[in-house]
């Protein structure tokens, strides 16, 4: 199958692939721009960034590509509104929001004409999103990395959600190959979102130690923890996540980064440690199929391969 274009509002991606917004600072300007240069949609992970840092990353991405650049932000973040408004003021192309649901964000989008793309995992929330003004939705299944909103596979979710809404539907969770993309498009998706494959790319902002850790992971190393956000989260078993599985690891210092926090550990600081290469005390979020990734490749090579696999797919 020749992959179709993905249209979100007035923006048209020649390649129907959205790069997942992976925090903290795993997907920054360099990765987002590389995906956008291949015709996809690149996302800067805005969670945990200051307004000044976000403006810098958006400007840097703009200097590296003429393609589509968006942000991904956790609704659970205390500064959610400020981040959205800063990104809009900086001219971002779209906002993808997950780890919670906000009705207010649709107002921000309506005022500025910025497409708002919530991450949902049910027909009910898909319908509510469309009614409130979502330009598209990301439908995330249980296979995804990070915060999870369902125990159902994305392949179970897509047909019913496709039948329930008219806006573009982007499938997320467990997408690694061109055949996966073709399968999901045939089920009714307009495009896909991919996180883990791009986390393990040359342009990802993760430390070399973290990328090496990805390649060493085995299926039994992928676990689900309870996040301070109040949702389950899929991660790689590290010494730190193993402790979290056993019980709370209360933070010694709290930056009040979340609107509501369970305080079983500090998610922002633990993700930062992992991004910087500390796989002992860091939290490594990942998708279910990370162990299938065998090499660190450039975004160009990854997307070229995906397109070739899609062309050859049944």
Primary descriptors:
314 residues, TIM Barrel, 2 domains, eight-stranded parallel β-sheet, three-stranded antiparallel β-sheet, 12 helices, 18% strand
Provide a descriptive summary of the structure in words:
The chain has 314 residues and is α/β, with parallel strands linked by helices. The protein has 2 domains: 6-205 and 296-312, Alpha-Beta Barrel (TIM Barrel), CATH 3.20.20; 208-291, no CATH class. 37% of the residues lie in helices and 18% in strands. The chain is built from 12 helices and 13 strands. It has helices at residues 29-37, 51-64, 80-89, 104-112, 123-132, 154-164, 178-187, 196-199, 208-216, 239-246, 267-275, 299-312, and strands at 6-8, 11-13, 17-19, 41-45, 68-74, 94-98, 116-120, 137-140, 146-147, 169-172, 191-194, 222-226, 232-236. The strands form 3 sheets. Strands 3-11-10-8-7-6-5-4 form an 8-stranded parallel sheet. A 3-stranded antiparallel sheet has the order 9-13-12, covered by helices on one side. Strands 1-2 form a two-stranded antiparallel sheet. Helix 1 (29-37) runs parallel beside helix 2, helix 3 runs parallel beside helix 4 (104-112) and helix 7 crosses helix 12 (299-312). The protein is globular and about 50 Å long. The N and C termini lie close together (8 Å).
């Amino acid at each position: 199958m020749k992959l179709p274009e993905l249209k979100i509002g007035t923006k048209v991606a020649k390649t129907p692939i959205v790069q997942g917004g992976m925090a903290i600072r795993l997907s920054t300007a360099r990765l987002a721009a590389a995906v956008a240069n291949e015709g996809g949609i690149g996302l800067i992970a805005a969670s945990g960034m200051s307004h000044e840092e976000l403006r810098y990353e958006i400007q840097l991405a703009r200097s590296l590509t003429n393609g589509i650049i968006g942000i991904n932000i956790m609704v659970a973040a205390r500064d959610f509104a400020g981040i959205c408004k800063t990104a809009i003021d900086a001219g971002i192309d779209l906002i993808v929001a997950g780890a919670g649901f906000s009705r207010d964000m649709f107002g921000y989008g309506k005022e500025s004409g910025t497409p708002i793309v919530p991450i949902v995992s049910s027909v009910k929330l898909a319908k509510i999103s469309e009614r409130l003004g979502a330009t598209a939705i990301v439908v995330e299944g249980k296979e995804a990395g990070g915060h999870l909103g369902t125990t159902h596979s994305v392949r179970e979710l897509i047909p019913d959600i496709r039948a329930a809404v008219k806006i573009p539907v982007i499938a997320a969770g467990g997408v690694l190959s061109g055949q996966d993309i073709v399968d999901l498009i045939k089920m009714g998706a307009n495009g896909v979102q991919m996180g883990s494959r791009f986390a393990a790319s040359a342009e990802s902002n993760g430390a070399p130690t973290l990328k090496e850790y990805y390649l060493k992971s085995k299926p039994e190393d992928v676990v689900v923890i309870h996040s301070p956000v109040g949702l389950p989260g899929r991660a790689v078993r590290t010494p730190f996540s193993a402790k979290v599985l056993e019980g709370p690891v209360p933070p010694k210092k709290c930056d009040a980064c979340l609107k509501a926090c369970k305080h079983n550990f500090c998610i922002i600081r633990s993700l930062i440690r992992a991004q910087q290469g500390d796989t002992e005390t860091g939290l490594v979020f990942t998708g279910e199929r990370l162990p299938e990734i065998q090499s660190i490749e450039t975004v160009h090579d990854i997307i070229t391969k995906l397109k070739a696999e899609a062309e050859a797919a049944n």
